[in-house]
Design brief:
heterodimer, A: alpha/beta, 2 domains, three-stranded antiparallel beta sheet, 14 helices, about 15% strand, B: about 550 residues, mainly alpha, MetI-like fold
Chain lengths: ~400, ~550
């Protein structure tokens, strides 16, 4: 009893800078001790049974290995958790908050970090952190050009890939222009989620990457002086394809699941997703026909990472860190990459792994529709978040109200 | 005297959270010199979105009321009507989102109807590129709303119709040579309508502010105002909260405008009916066409909902089902396997919360109405407005403020807290369902009882409550259904600690997986269906020996 209390005291102290000199190992041991017996409430989008099943499996591991109970709070949108922490802050609740861990990235992370709603830095002190491929996968430490500064820990890589029905589309387009031509030649068989939806705006950014003369500009904030000229080719591209879109562009699917459903129903023939393994995993789950294949564009497609972050007032921050660390465990990462489970790409540097761990990844079957890593093409970094806001606002102005 | 003070206490209990939540909304909207309203006005879609909200709300409510009246007028008392009535329970129990998804799958170009006719009749081997769902005028949305609201209005009408003494009136009118429909519209409807007026208002407010149905069936360029408000509220980085709050206040204004419009039409309709009555047209020729139209309408709506549900049920066990196959290739229980681990605790919690909220609501409602009766209190329009605030003010407007309240009071995250918040939404519906029947109960029963020496308490327990068994149970079933269907209040006040069937269903539905959606839609409607079935079956069983109590 006394020992446990002492451990808790240590855990509390370990988070203060005064004890920064303590060794990592001792510090982590005290976190582990404090975490034992905690129940961690992980607020995560709950729309995919495959992901929910994976999180439940992670929970079993956490219980077996560390005595930490993991409860997934299934959300319809991540904003629900952000709004929750915000209300708690507004109500003056600085401890014992309801959210222990959030699946997060991009704008939600930027908003929470700048409002001081996050606990940290913690990510770079996790024992498994050295395994993360921060040089080969810079998106693990840069979230929409914003340095993560250890306030969130990555757990999955995502890259935009196009999905197509190989029965109807014999030669998938390889460039943006070819895609445009295919759309015009096959009216009604392509669409994208309606901005400001996340995936829909990603499509706009992908088109912008393909039409802007100097993509490096996208890593900087939008400048009013050049914005109109830089985006003119993007809008011209959209004006060209819109009459040939699904429903002549008079309606758009709401989000990524709705787009995926259109592909599954055969309403569209080319779709896209933010997960190179999605098609294989959906085929394995019986939701997609097994003739679906994937392709990327020459010059690369946008990629980013999924993270977990801990709110400033989390009731079980030690347990939350244990889960964040567990998510970086090679066994857990290999399971996430298995197309029969999730098909998410790993954030780890495979070369840095012990041979036994590396073999877990080597043993994985790619899945019928997944491109091998060397054919996925380069990963384009997410543009600065201001591009996303500006593009989706502009899209709504231009196309948001039908004539 | 506690009973005497109860109506006021109940009002405070109802209006307090809503007003607190409203204040929490008005503040961000009015901050910075009402900048939020300028942002709102800058949205080019605003006029269309506002018009869509008004249009779909008014059209679906008017159509629902018309069809409900038509079915009652043309079919009440016939064997067909008894069959319709027995189908009401399952129809009412379908959650709005599930009904919308079912209808969407039915009428979409890749939907069941198209599949059944393809390729042999249509020649389609791929789904045609037709804009049926999400049409710019909100026709699909209106259709979906009508399918859901006609059963609700029918239930409300049925729970009060006996107060209007329909058989004698219809018989008298018939002996004077009036056609069935004319007799109903001229003699029963004028007494019936005031009894269902508040439910009609609630339907109007609901139809104008619905989010989940609009998301599936409604237009998107632009969407309806309520959908856009929800989008702003959910915008990442929470930068559009002010705009959302301003939009919510506009939405509230629109609802009030629509109610005023509706009221004006009521006055006009009343004059019109009075004049028609004075003219003395017997209109017997209207009976056959009305009957056919009523059958067609009831058949179409019933078919739409049931076929949609059947489609969802089929999807929940479908292995592989592609266009243009009319049926799935095989059967798979994987979606049910996904649902099963959390099923028992979630069902128990859902039921517990619903029972607690409904029981409290029924007690409060009965106490208020009894206080009215005993002390001759009358509910002022202002008091009624306060009571119905939770129905008239869009949920998304005041819930965030309500959450802050719960946080400050340190009561979030437990099931009693969730039940307490559900009470705010359940009570108006229970009151709405019960009050008309209670208030119009013939006072001569009580007078006679008192003359025979019965105390007020005895009159209540032995006379009024048994006489009102059917309306009380119906009101409770409505309350259960309302509680079971709550998503945002459960999530916000539960803080993720309270998992109900609906929080599971909505979270899983956001993934768009039809198999999982089908599974949870069925689970979600089983509980309310059971409640409605009990509400209809119990009084019949209890009163099987009392012909006057059979409805």
């Amino acid at each position: 009893m006394q020992r446990r209390d002492f451990g808790r005291l240590l855990a509390g102290l370990a988070l203060t800078p005064a004890l920064a000199g303590k060794t990592f190992a001792a510090e982590w041991d005290s976190i582990l001790a404090a975490a034992r017996g905690q129940t961690v409430y992980w607020h995560a989008w709950g729309g995919d049974p495959k992901i929910n099943a994976f999180i439940a499996w992670v929970g079993e591991q956490a219980q077996d290995r560390y005595g930490v109970t993991l409860e997934q709070v299934k959300l319809a949108a991540t904003t629900e958790a952000v709004a929750r922490v915000q209300s708690e802050q507004a109500a003056g609740q600085t401890t014992g908050g309801a959210v222990d861990l959030i699946w997060i990235n991009g704008e939600n992370f930027a908003a929470m970090k700048s409002a001081g709603l996050l606990f940290g830095p913690f990510a770079e002190s996790l024992p498994n952190w050295p395994l993360v491929d921060t040089t080969g996968k810079p998106a693990t430490v840069t979230d929409f050009t914003l340095p993560t500064d250890g306030f969130e820990s990555p757990w999955a890589m995502a890259q935009l890939v196009f999905e197509y029905d190989s029965v109807s589309v014999k030669e998938p387009p390889q460039t943006l222009d070819a895609l445009g031509e295919w759309i015009v030649a096959n009216p009604g068989r392509f669409t994208y989620p309606q901005p400001p939806d996340y995936l829909g705006t990603t499509f706009l950014k992908q088109v912008l990457y393909g039409t802007i003369p100097d993509p490096a500009l996208l890593q900087k904030p939008v400048e009013d002086a050049t914005y109109t000229d830089l985006t003119a080719p993007l809008w011209a591209f959209l004006d060209r394809i819109h009459p040939a879109l699904w429903r002549q562009g008079r309606a758009f699917p709401a989000n990524e699941p709705a787009l995926g459903q259109l592909l599954a129903d055969g309403e569209i023939l080319i779709s896209f997703a933010f997960n190179p393994g999605r098609a294989s995993a959906e085929i394995a789950a019986g939701n997609l026909t097994d003739t679906i294949r994937t392709f990327t564009l020459q010059g690369g497609t946008i990629g980013n990472a999924s993270f977990v972050a801990i709110p400033f007032n989390a009731a079980h921050r030690e347990g939350a860190q244990v889960i964040a660390n567990l998510l970086l465990d090679p066994e857990v990462q290999a399971r996430a990459q298995d197309p029969a489970i999730l098909g998410f790409q790993t954030v780890l540097n495979l070369q840095a792994l012990a041979p036994a761990d590396k073999s877990r990844f080597d043993a994985l079957d790619l899945g019928v529709a997944t491109l091998p890593p060397d054919r996925l093409g380069p990963v384009l970094l997410e543009p600065h978040a201001s591009w996303m806001t500006r593009l989706s606002d502009d899209w709504v102005k231009r196309f948001g109200v039908a004539e | 005297m506690i009973l005497r003070a109860l109506p006021r206490l109940t009002l405070a209990l109802m209006a307090g959270p809503v007003l607190a939540g409203l204040a929490g909304t008005a503040y961000p909207a009015l901050r910075d010199g009402a900048r939020a309203f300028r942002d709102l006005a800058a949205w080019t879609g605003l006029p269309r979105a506002a018009a869509l909200s008004l249009g779909t709300g008014l059209a679906s409510t008017a159509l629902s009321l018309f069809l409900c009246t038509l079915v009652l007028a043309a079919l009440h008392g016939t064997p067909t009507f008894a069959r319709i009535r027995s189908l009401l329970a399952p129809l009412l129990a379908v959650p709005h989102a599930a009904a919308a998804l079912g209808i969407a799958f039915l009428i979409a170009p890749s939907g069941w109807i198209a599949r059944a006719l393809s390729p042999w009749a249509t020649g389609w081997t791929a789904p045609p590129d037709l804009l049926i769902l999400n049409d710019p005028y909100g026709l699909s949305l209106t259709l979906g709303l009508v399918a859901k609201e006609v059963p609700f209005l029918l239930l409300m009408a049925l729970s009060s119709i006996n107060q209007t003494d329909p058989d004698r009136r219809l018989t008298t009118a018939a002996t004077l040579g009036y056609g069935r429909v004319a007799a109903f519209v001229l003699t029963v409807f004028p007494t019936l309508y005031p009894l269902i007026r508040l439910p009609v208002y609630a339907v109007l407010a609901y139809a104008m502010t619905v989010v989940d149905m609009a998301l599936i069936l409604g237009p998107t360029l632009p969407p309806t105002l309520s959908q856009q408000i929800a989008a702003w509220q959910m915008a990442p980085s929470l930068t559009k909260q002010g705009t959302a709050a301003a939009g919510a206040i506009l939405q509230l204004g629109l609802v009030l405008v629509a109610l005023a419009l509706w009221r004006a039409v009521e006055v006009g309709a009343r004059r019109f009916l009075t004049r028609q009555a004075a003219l003395g047209h017997r209109a017997a020729g209207a009976d056959l066409p009305s009957r056919l139209l009523a059958l067609l309408a009831a058949g179409t709506l019933g078919f739409g909902l049931f076929a949609g549900l059947a489609a969802l049920a089929l999807w929940s066990v479908a292995a592989d089902w592609r266009f243009p196959e009319a049926f799935p290739h095989g059967i798979s229980l994987s979606a049910w396997a996904i649902a099963s681990p959390d099923l028992l605790p979630a069902t128990a919690l859902t039921l517990g919360i619903a029972l607690a909220a409904t029981f409290a609501a029924a007690m409060l409602t009965l106490a208020c109405l009894e206080a009215e009766t005993r002390f001759g209190l009358t509910a002022t329009p202002r008091a009624m407005l306060l009571l119905y605030l939770p129905l008239l003010v869009p949920q998304i407007v005041f819930l965030p403020g309500l959450q802050t309240l719960a946080l400050t009071m340190q009561i979030q995250g437990t099931w009693p807290a969730v039940a307490a918040v559900h009470l705010v939404f359940v009570l108006p519906y229970v009151f709405l369902s019960l009050a008309p029947a209670y208030r119009t109960l013939d006072p001569r029963y009580a007078t006679t009882a008192r003359a025979l020496g019965a105390t007020e308490a005895r009159v209540f327990w032995r006379l009024r409550l048994p006489l009102l068994l059917a309306p009380v149970l119906t009101a409770s079933a409505v309350g259960m259904a309302v509680s079971i269907g709550q998503y945002l209040p459960t999530l916000l006040v539960g803080g993720g600690r309270v998992t109900t069937l609906t929080t599971e269903a909505v979270a899983l539905s956001s993934g768009g997986n039809r198999r999982v959606i089908g599974t949870f839609a069925l689970l979600q409607l089983l509980l309310p269906a059971l409640c409605f079935w009990l509400a209809i079956a119990l009084p019949r069983m209890v009163w099987r020996n009392r012909r006057g109590m059979q409805t």
